[in-house]
Amino acid sequence: MLDRLIEVLLSYIIPILELMGIFVVTWSTARAFVDYVKLQVLHRSVQGNFKVELANGLATSLEFKMAAEILKTVIVREKSELVVLGAVIVLRALLSILIHFELRAEERSHPGGNNGET
User: Which domain holds residue 80?
Assistant: First the structure.
């Protein structure tokens, strides 16, 4: 009985978390693109560093996606599903680490946030 309730609840929660991650990626990418266009095409300054903001958005969206993957482990039925799920979690964790290092390198190279110019 409890297993079925958890499965039903997770069938709603997991897609919501994944949609949150998609929304964060979409929003942060759109904002970074607008800042990029302002900077490169319109030659107007932008507030902050759009590369850092984009990296923060990507890292945040990966956290939502990782949360969904972790919850999926609760409803895994077969060993092969667990292997695939584990591989996805490892890949997303590696992406998160790479984004983190890229973010730190960008912040060190442009400490004041110089509008994303390189």
Answer: 2-109
